[in-house]
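re: that chain from earlier
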Amino acid sequence: MKRIRCNFSLLIPLFIIGFIMVLPVSATVVPAGTPDPDFSVDIYKPDKVWPGTTLFADYHKQGMARIVEVNMQGEIVWEYVLPNELTRYANPGFDAELLPNNNILFLLPSKGAYEVNRMGNIVWSYLDSKISHDVDRLPNGNTLINFGAEDQKGDAQVKEVNPEGKVVWSWRAKDVFDKPPYDTMYFQGWTHANAVIRLPNGDTVVNLRNFNLTVAINPQGKVAWQYDWGSIGTSPHEPEVLPNGNILVCLHPEPGQVVATPDQVVEVNPKTKEIVWQYMTKKPRFILGETRDADRLPNGNTLINDGINIIEVTPAKEIVWRFNVKGLSELPVTAQNHGLCLYKSERIGLHAPQFSIQYPMDSGCTGREIDISIQFDNTDLGSIWYRIFDRTKNTWVTDNITYVKNKWANALTFEGKETGQQKITLEEGNYTLHVWAASTGWGDENLLVPKVINTAEQSVNFSVTVGCLATKPPATQEGSAALSPSIALIGVIIAGLIAGLYNKRVR
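^ sequence. v structure.
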């Protein structure tokens, strides 16, 4: 837990009657679900996982394609079964992700991108036979789509479309890579681009599987940087640019390739080319499925989809959660069965940010200042902000003031500082300090686009009077019970009576 302070200078003498409200972090409530006989969880270590639900596209039964959300026990908490006319498009590359509005955005290769609400109604779609593998909703409401299904040199590999379906930006690999050794390559398309990400600086990351390259394209279409995975493995999938600048990627051989490298998840420093972290998926090559998706979670764990399992592993490579789909590991490796594998998944976090109000807790008469001090946990914290409410006049006396904000300089080692109003005049009266905190909303490889923002709120009452009598409550340790407002009020009343008797005697 970290703590920073801000001072409000009061321009009148004051008396703060305050109590600290420390709320212990409540246990994560995992939603109840319905068991599926084909789903099971055989490893689950609650104290080591990043708790939440897991969303993935499921096509393990021929003839039935669906999007499924399961809890940590592997029970279904929500599902959407695709209409019959769309089921045949759920081949490798079936992608689904949660949107901030709680709808689900999904992609069907060689068919189109769709948005469905939780009632199962399709509310938006964009159709194109070259669509493949990856789709993201951007903060501006546009949708970023990858085009790699049998793509040709004249095709755009990335398009950004607005809600009306108009293409507002696109990029063609031909403008950069129509030269040796790339110009003669072809396997399921020229580039078989299989992932796109919009970075906070406006660049677009495009994963070109056939070229074994991950490239970043600036808004003008020029290559800002590129990384060749050839020295580590082949067939890159789902690169994730981490806040520290490293790249997390899945590498695996394609069917029929004779290579020495196994399925693996690798984190590299693109500047030094150092392998920072590496995880080899422990399954023989004759077993169906490839490792195609890995997401770094807010607690530092990694969620990995290896085609037949979804696992969560710690930085020390301990498996702390493993979700299985019955029968996938027994299927023979054939082209027909290849499409039945799990492709991508994302963890939807349930944790609300962890923080506690430390001050105001005494008058601070000598300095004529009120300390605003909040203790917080960095993990998955997006921002903390607060306002002060005048309970006597029934009005807010401040706007929202940002206490700390994640600048994405390094989201795993949070940094931030307070911005906004620094001084305020408080008249005599009764006030409430309201504090809110929001999570980052991490979900999948696109850290720019929040998935679900969990929030928490706390408040503390204090008063300002002309008198200057300081009664300082005892220090409260982290995790202790909240000081009851009624107890605090009784203490104030007793202190006031004693002070009154004392003043009479002095006179």
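The CA atoms of residues 22 and 481 lie 7 Å apart.
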